[in-house]
Amino acid sequence: xxxxxxxxxxxxxxxxxxxxxxxxxxxxxxxxxxxxxxxxxxxxxxxxxxxxxxxxxxxxxxxxxxxxxxxxxxxxxxxxxxxxxxxxxxxxxxxxxxxxxxxxxxxxxxxxxxxxxxxxxxxxxxxxxxxxxxxxxxxxxxxxxxxxxxxxxxxxxxxxxxxxxxxxxxxxxxxxxxxxxxxxxxxxxxxxxxxxxxxxxxxxxxxxxxxx
Length: 212
Fold this sequence. Notes:
It is a single chain. By secondary structure, the protein is mostly beta strands. It has one helix at 2-14, and strands at 23-37, 46-58, 63-65, 68-84, 90-105, 108-115, 118-139, 148-150, 160-172, 176-185, 197-209. Strands 1, 2, 3, 4, 5, 6, 7, 8, 9, 10 and 11 form an eleven-stranded antiparallel β-sheet that branches. β1 and β2 (46-58) form a beta hairpin. The longest helix is centred in the first third of the chain and has 13 residues, at 2-14. The two termini are 38 Å apart.
């Protein structure tokens, strides 16, 4: 609950009309996600989507705060696992666990202006997210039962997550944005014992800024 309240407060504060000097826009792209932690965890990367509203607020000539708010898909993937159905038949398939997060990210960035039409931003800061839903899917396996199920049915995972985001972005002609992000989860998203599980993701997105 405290993460939900903090997420709402941060998003409403950062995107309020009080920042008259800010530039707003949006970005979307792909990212590769995985879960890390102690014990037996998947070592495959899961391709997911991210779609976010973004802003750039100048704190000085060289320092900006570049918050974003929107959808971030994270999770895990197991490949080539062996399953047994209710009749004792063996089959090989993949398991995909996808968390649908609403995420707010607040990096503080250093700005480098190479020419009037190109700027670079290098920054890092906290992120907070809340999983509005999540589902596990069984793919590429000929088993009739349990093709998909809710990740949160048995309270196995927490809906909240938090960590550090590293972002590198290039702003072209004041209007276009190319951004790389790396999300390093610090919170344990598991409600079960046996080791902490943390979300990790890295992605590339392109965007558009409504420049003044």
